[in-house]
Amino acid sequence: MLADPSSDREALPVELVDDTGAAIGTCSVADAHRPPGTLHRAFSVLLFDRAGRVLIQQRAAVKTRFPLQWANTCCGHPAPGQPVVEAAAIRLGEELGLAAELTEVGAFSYRAGDESTGRVEHEYDHVLIGVIDAAPRPDPAEVGSWAWVSPLSLREDLAATPGKYTPWLAEVLEIAERAHLAAQA
């Protein structure tokens, strides 16, 4: 499914949160990402295949934050009051044409400025995982490229060339891989 090019994702509302993740208000995506950034709810999905590899994507060149950098399978913002798992499943379909059973496995907060766009991510990020053995059908307005990679290779490349990757990917990988390995044990 391709994203509707007439929709302006920057105008959509996000849920503002405090340091514990409790909702405290709303604002637009664009307003939340203006410097210095306002803490808001987000999610990051990382899918595994049966061989234990993870699906990563290179963000499209038109992205307003961290364009052309490699990231987890998909990410986004739930609407205020929307369950995170529901929002993540919808976004997974929109960005990559995939459906998977998703499980929330942790959350963390971070702040990162994007020098190329001047925008700031300040997110309370819920991490979700799933297992799938299907090829993505990405929306080119969202995804520049994609790859299945081993977590070890990804960690090594993150350490060697961190500028290729979004600032949240290392923490997402750590939380997701720990949960995936525990579920396999």
UniProtKB/TrEMBL annotation:
It comes from the Bacteria. Binds 1 Mg(2+) ion per subunit. The magnesium ion binds only when substrate is bound. Binds 1 Mn(2+) ion per subunit. It is found in: Cytoplasm. Its EC number is 5.3.3.2. Its cofactor is Mg(2+); Mn(2+). Mg(2+) binds at residue 95. This is Isopentenyl-diphosphate Delta-isomerase.
